[in-house]
Amino acid sequence: FGPARSVKPIDWAFLQSGKPIFFVEAKEVGKKLPNYDEQLADYYAKSPEAKLGILTNGVQWRFFTDIVAPNIMDKEPFVKWDVLADEEPPFDFLTLLQKSQFNPQLIRTFAERKHHQNLLVSELSRLLEPSHGFIRLAVANLETRMMTEKVLETWKPVVASAIEEWVKQRMLSMVL
Questions:
Q1: In angstroms, rounded to a whole number, what is the distance separating the alpha carbons of residues 50 and 44?
Q2: Contact between 39 and 8 (Cβ < 8 Å)
């Protein structure tokens, strides 16, 4: 993969019809994976057929593709999995990696949905972080004190947790 990286070969290249379809770069347990994103991205960029990059230290797994720009590995993984910390593995994605199921387009579709979902969760988190104006509106009928900066700040964690509880209750009512 070029003279600058010739001494650092990719750990695994999975081929289909003689062409790489995804790469796995493995590091030792305990290594901080974000430090090696660029190394994986170099391999990824030099092989446009590959549409999946996996970086792992055996415990943490990071799955990348090129949703943001074609043939340029995204800076953020579309799926992260910590074998020891996460309650459940991302079975919905891992099943797509089975030889019998493997289809690059399905992986791309999954990655696009995850990418968009991650963007939306981030945006919702930003929107649902209660601003002073929202707090003032939410507690106007509850608070008898003057709505000073200090009063609004005391309400902020209460309003934030109330929003979370409201969302949980809405989700439960949708399931039932």
A1: 7
A2: yes
Residue 10 contacts residue 1 (beta carbons within 8 Å): yes
Confidence at residue 3, expressed as pLDDT on a 0 to 100 scale: 52
Cα separation, 166 vs 47, whole angstroms: 47
- 3 state DSSP class of 95: helix
Mean pLDDT of all residues in 16-23: 90
Q: How far apart are CA 76 and CA 97, in angstroms?
A: 19
Return the amino acid letter for 100: S
Angstrom distance (rounded) from CA 176 to CA 172 = 6
pLDDT of 6 > 50? The answer is: no
Cα–Cα distance list, 163 to 73, 119, 131, 141, 169 (Å): 36, 20, 13, 17, 10
pLDDT at 5 over 70: no
* Calpha distance 87→170 (Å, rounded): 23
Q: What is each CA distance from 94 to 16, 48, 88, 97, 172, in whole angstroms?
A: 18, 22, 11, 5, 27
- Helix/strand/coil for 128: helix
Q: What is the pLDDT of residues 80-93, one digit of tens each?
A: 999 999 889 999 99
**pLDDT tens sequence across 111-149:** 999 999 989 988 888 777 888 888 999 999 999 999 999
